[in-house]
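re: ur question from earlier - yeah i can do the single chain one, its not a big deal. heres the input i used so u can compare w yours
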Amino acid sequence: MVKYFSRICFANLHYNVILWEKYGMPNGKGIPMTQKKKSPASAEPHASLTLLNRSHTEYPDSPGKARIETFSNAYPERNYVITFDCPEFTSLCPVTNQPDFGHIVIRYVADRLCLESKALKLYLFSFRNHHSFHEEAVNRILTDLRKACSPRWMEVTGDFMPRGGIAIHVCAEEGDSSLKK
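and the output i got, formated as tokens:
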């Protein structure tokens, strides 16, 4: 009985695959499956995001090679603070070539564009093999992110682990600081 049942199931599956391949009819009812072409107005609103939903992620090896992607702010009329908390930031000391570990916090009030988090993660990851002092890294992050999304206000803070007994805390900001909460 089980053999007979499995033969019927396999035969039906095989028949449906043939219909699909030959006629584009997975429903087996003789109705071709066609796709409507999207008009420009109904095009994907996030088509510019190229790093999301990829099966293979390529990690940039320097901040200059990283792509910072953005998407449209759904509420541009509002002032609201967006915060990214990145506790595993690493870069290389330009003198000793030793790794530096830090905690980066990015806070901003978006205008028309918001930062996409996966692209931001890859951008921050690109500092892993980049030689820079802590002050340079924080200010470079602020400059690059402001260039990408033109926020009303942005603050980048870096808390770096002690090296030689001294921890370094760097905070850089630009824009209308009255929006800071």
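The first strand starts at residue 70 and ends at 72. not sure if urs matches, ping me
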